[in-house]
Amino acid sequence: MSTFAWDDLRYFLAFARTGSMQAAAKALGVNQSTVQRRIAEFEECLGHRLVERHFGSYRLTALGEELCPAAESVETAVAAFKRHLAACDKGLTGTVRVTCGSSVAACLRRTPLIDAFHACHPGLRLELVISDRVLDLSRGEADIAIRLGEPRDEALVGRKIADASWALYGSRTYVERHGRPSNPQDLKGHFLVACDGSITDYPGAR
Question: pTM for this one?
Answer without folding.
Answer: 0.47
